[in-house]
Specification:
Number of domains of chain A: 2
Strand content of chain B: 15-25%
Order of helices and strands of chain A: HHHHHHHEEHHHHHH
Radius of gyration of chain B: 26 Å
CATH class of the largest domain in chain B: Alpha Beta
Distance between the termini of chain A: 11 Å
CATH superfamily of the largest domain in chain A: MetI-like
Radius of gyration of chain A: 24 Å
Oligomer: heterodimer
CATH architecture of the largest domain in chain A: Orthogonal Bundle
Helix content of chain A: over 70%
Largest interface: A-B, 54 and 62 residues
Number of helices of chain B: 17
CATH topology of the largest domain in chain B: Dipeptide-binding Protein, domain 3
Distance between the termini of chain B: 40 Å
Strand content of chain A: under 5%
Number of strands of chain A: 2
Largest sheet of chain A: 2 strands, antiparallel
CATH class of the largest domain in chain A: Mainly Alpha
Number of helices of chain A: 13
CATH topology of the largest domain in chain A: MetI-like fold
Low-confidence stretches of chain A: none
Number of domains of chain B: 2
């Protein structure tokens, strides 16, 4: 087991190194940050001064070498734009994104599973048809347009909910979060719904299919024969069996929620990392782009590692297969 | 009963009165801004985003008005003892937000700090590059000695933000961002900055100048155009900037909103690359690059200018959000030439000019443009392609790219005919003529943004004469003369000045400005 973890950690180091090379050269190839950072009337002396202070006057290989040396000591570079360590800028913004992705995930579960169960049990009924049509919409509406519509309806016409920013935040257990205040929650509702609609649809469909596959199985028939109430059959026997694939998919989707938060964060001016990365790409703030991608890669590696460890604990076959 | 009724009426009247009084004194305003600052230190970056943020809390020696003209502000008067020596007096009644008085020590400290801010991505270095020595005379007067005669000195140092020596010495960038060192002399004090979200300010009670109308100000940073408009419509912000031209008709017709347009100093132009013996994308019928480079011939450049119907571009592509132009700066700036007006398109004359230049059948051309830099940049390129095709050129393609990729390639000279924009931030044409049209020379440091490498000795000489002229009026005349030479030569093909818009709810007034700045003290209660 220990050998397995150590091997995976070494692999992770290689992945991180390769990613850093690819991202660094990729970002380097896009364009010249000086073109964007400097005002149009900047003189050549100013240009040279900035190039020197940001290290942009060095060849790519030297810039990468410097980056690597710093990275090994835990410093992923200083943002050109903000002149702050890029990792601390990212960590400042990350809670807002995680909070949004988490809310969307919770919505997907508490709305998606009951609706999926309902439509799966009433197959072919008007309720089923309505829910399925709704889920097609949830899948196919462009996130961007959908966000604008939510703003138009709930902020502009009805005036119920705010459409921009994170609102008042408070601290719960030392973490700054919107959940702490009513104003914060009001600000969270629209972006969270926008981000979750596609996931709700996904969960509905997974649940519905699961229900349809499970209902005809023998153990359900036996449960019926034992005289259990249909309520108990659904909530205990059916749900337990269909939950496994749903949880697996949701776990994977959490990563994509963070990635897709970019669009939602832009429309709702949510101060998360998605917006930061888009802005940084636009102004070619290389250190922030590179650091962000490394942070995300680390996150995914960690999730995968945890999943693999859990699997090998739960399933001896995987352990024995791994050489 | 009657008494009750009377009391009731009185109560309603009182309520009405108090509510009107409340509106009139509406203490707070929320401003929706498209861009955001990268730091609070006013000397950290010279970009518009940072400067318009600093303008709320910090002040400069000279004040820039809505037409980019500069007036005495913290500096009250100045005179030249000789071409190198300046004596400058500052206001005596100015205090910093921490209560300490503003003195010459702060001025000297600020000017010296200007080019020493570590890792600044856009330093103010050039503003103080001509300064040789600074000498204090007394608390409100100092002497400045320049390295060479510099008539534009006050315009340059007049743009440097004044910081408090006491609060800034040993302060880090973080100290500014947290507000600890954000001690200025301006009408507003720093309260809180939340990056990507908001900046909160409150009025400074002991401000020496005109008090602003609003006590508390919150800037909200809303980058997306549609979301910003929606925020105004929903009432969550009171005023927004950078209104998308396509939203303007709708906002104007809504009745309870007001739109504030201004013809900005941002020129959109077509550059014709004269750098090499061939121009990328300029080919003959067989697809081979034409040598010598046709753009080196002024007749070809003029012919292209004559093919373009600028009014049509502005009306159809931009919904009217532009003002056709035939020169570098807008009419309110010094150095503007009254009689240089855009001519209507004339394809026949263009053809004749092309024939004269040796291209009776025209030639092949590709047009390049950014597609996310300013409203309509990609569409303008498409429309230009059609106009040039009508004028007798064979348009082989229109290529647009995101600005972060586009700008670097343009600087490297990878485009033949390409669209670019240039904003104005100074009171006259000098800065833009220098960076855009002066002969490029790395050694001399001239022509930094002369990407097409236009070079004309007559123009350079005329511009240098203007730069060295101390008499303000003569200097403007000389700038006009230089502009005339360059435009006679069609150094660039000017297209239009962008119109930009702010929009506010009823009851809010705003002074739109050429420099595209959104500053809290310009937002007032409508009278």
């Amino acid at each position: 087991m220990t050998a397995f973890v150590i091997r995976r950690l070494l692999q992770a180091m290689v992945v991180l190194f390769v990613t850093s090379v690819i991202v660094f050269t990729g970002v380097y190839a896009i364009g010249d940050p000086l073109e964007i950072l400097l005002p149009a009337d900047a003189t050549m002396a100013e240009r040279a001064q900035v190039a020197r202070s940001l290290g942009l006057d060095q060849p790519l290989i030297v810039q990468y070498g410097r980056f690597l040396m710093n990275a090994l000591s835990g410093n992923l570079g200083t943002s050109f734009v903000y002149n702050r360590p890029s990792i601390s800028i990212i960590l400042d913004r990350l809670p807002a994104t995680l909070e949004l992705a988490f809310s969307a995930l919770v919505l997907a579960i508490i709305i998606g599973i009951p609706l999926g169960l309902w439509s799966g049990l009433r197959r072919g009924s008007a309720v089923d048809e309505t829910i399925m049509t709704g889920s097609i919409l949830g899948f196919s509406l462009p996130n961007f347009w959908q966000g604008m519509m939510l703003i138009m309806i709930f902020s502009v016409y009805l005036g119920w909910l705010p459409s921009t920013g994170r609102g008042q935040t408070g601290t719960i257990l030392g973490i700054e979060t919107s959940f702490a205040t009513w104003d914060g929650i009001r600000h969270l509702i629209l972006p969270a719904i926008n981000l979750s609609l596609a996931k709700i649809s996904l969960v509905i469909r997974l649940t519905r299919t699961g229900v349809q596959e499970t209902m005809p199985l023998d153990f359900i028939k036996f449960a019926r024969a034992r005289g259990l109430s249909s309520r108990r059959i659904v909530t205990v026997h059916v749900l337990k069996n269909i939950l496994i694939p749903i949880i697996t998919v949701i776990g994977v989707e959490f990563g994509s929620l963070i990635a897709f938060a970019v669009v939602t964060e832009t429309i709702f001016s949510w101060p998360g990392v998605g917006k930061l990365i888009i802005d940084s790409i636009k102004v070619l703030d290389r250190p922030v782009v590179v650091a962000y991608i490394l942070v995300v890669v680390t996150m995914f590696i960690t999730i995968n590692l945890i999943v693999d460890i859990l699997y090998s604990i739960l399933d001896p076959r995987i352990r024995s297969k791994a050489p | 009963m009657t008494i009750m009724k009377k009391w009731g009426t009185a109560a309603i009247a009182a309520a009405l009165l108090s509510s009107t009084a409340f509106t009139a004194m509406a203490a707070d305003v929320v401003i929706g801004r498209a861009n955001e600052p990268s730091a609070i230190d006013p000397q950290f970056s010279r970009t518009g985003n940072n400067q318009m943020t600093a303008d709320n809390m910090f002040e400069t020696l000279l004040r820039t008005d809505e037409n980019l003209q500069m007036h005495p502000h913290l500096a009250t008067e100045w005179q030249n003892l000789d071409p190198l020596t300046w004596e400058i007096s500052i206001r005596k009644d100015v205090t910093f937000h921490d209560g300490s008085p503003f003195t010459v020590d702060d001025v000297i400290y600020s000017l010296e700090r200007t080019d020493e801010v570590p890792n600044s991505p856009a330093p103010f270095t050039d503003m103080v590059s001509s300064v040789d020595k600074l000498e204090k005379i007394d608390d409100h007067k100092f002497r400045l000695i320049t390295k060479a005669p510099n008539p534009a000195l006050m315009e340059q140092i007049g743009r440097v933000f004044m910081v408090s020596k006491k609060a800034t010495e040993n302060a880090t960038l973080e100290d500014f961002n947290s507000g600890k060192a954000a001690i200025g002399t301006g009408p507003y004090k720093f309260v809180e900055w939340r990056p990507a979200e908001s900046l909160k300010l409150t009025a400074y009670d002991n401000y020496w100048g005109k008090k602003p109308d609003f006590e508390n100000v919150e800037f909200r940073f809303i980058a997306n155009d549609a979301a910003r408009t929606a925020a105004l419509l929903s009432g969550s912000v009171d005023i927004i900037d950078s209104v998308s031209p396509s939203d303007v008709p709708r906002l104007e017709s809504s009745g309870n909103l007001k739109v504030f347009p201004v013809e900005s100093g941002r020129l959109v132009y077509l550059a014709l690359n004269m750098r090499d013996d061939t121009a990328p994308g300029v080919v003959d019928a067989s697809g081979k690059l034409i040598e010598p480079n046709p753009f080196r011939d002024a007749k070809v450049r003029k012919a292209i200018s004559k093919m373009i119907d600028r009014q049509l571009l502005v009306d159809r592509v931009l919904n009217g959000a532009g003002v056709p132009s035939a020169q570098i700066v807008p009419s309110v700036l010094g150095g503007y030439v009254e009689d240089l007006q855009p001519e209507p398109a004339n394809p026949a004359e263009a053809k004749a000019l092309l024939a004269e230049a040796g291209f009776p059948e025209g030639f092949g051309i590709t047009i390049y443009s950014s597609n996310d830099r300013f409203p309509g940049d990609g569409d303008i390129a498409q429309a230009l392609g059609q106009l040039l095709a009508r004028g007798g050129l064979k348009v082989n393609g229109v290529q647009t790219q995101p600005y972060n990729v586009y700008s670097a390639a343009a600087t490297k000279g990878e485009y033949g005919a390409y669209i670019f924009s240039l904003g104005s931030s100074t009171p006259n044409a000098e800065a833009n003529l220098r960076s855009l049209l002066q002969t490029y020379s790395k050694e001399a440091g001239t022509g930094g943004f002369n990407r097409m490498r236009y070079s004309n000795a007559d123009f350079d000489a005329a511009l240098n004469e203007a730069i060295e002229e101390f008499d303000q009026e003569k200097r403007m005349e000389k700038l006009q003369a230089a502009t005339r030479i360059a435009m006679e030569d069609q150094a660039i093909v000017p297209l239009y000045f962008q119109k930009i818009y702010w929009a506010a709810r009823e009851g809010i007034d705003f002074t739109p400005n050429l420099s595209e700045r959104t500053v809290a003290s310009d937002v007032r209660i409508a009278k």
